[in-house]
Write the structure tokens for this entry.
Amino acid sequence: MGNIQSCINASNRLYDLLENEIQNNPKLIELGITLESRDKNSYCFRVIFESPKNLVHAISISYPPDAYGNRGVEYNQPEIATTIETAVIDSTNKLFYPNELGYSDVLRFDTLKEIVEEILRVGNFVAK
């Protein structure tokens, strides 16, 4: 399997897991977040925050094919993508690097648990 397809497959799995988390995790429900409709042929999607009063509109979640851990067996890395990146999107739909959240670039994660924690962290910042 090519590394791009591996990243797309991993992104689709993560989307499904997050969709379940958003419906069943009381803390996520309380934040009122939603998942952007996804393109099943893409390796990224967005978590949307409801608060219009804040600059943070969304978090982009991606399994980028060029990230360490996602490059595939030809680079002696796992066939299944493992590295997840998040980036903050502002209210004008542009990348945004809020220092208050520790974003000077994308942040990287490895697990669903870490992604849920990041969504909660950013969501709580947005809700302030």
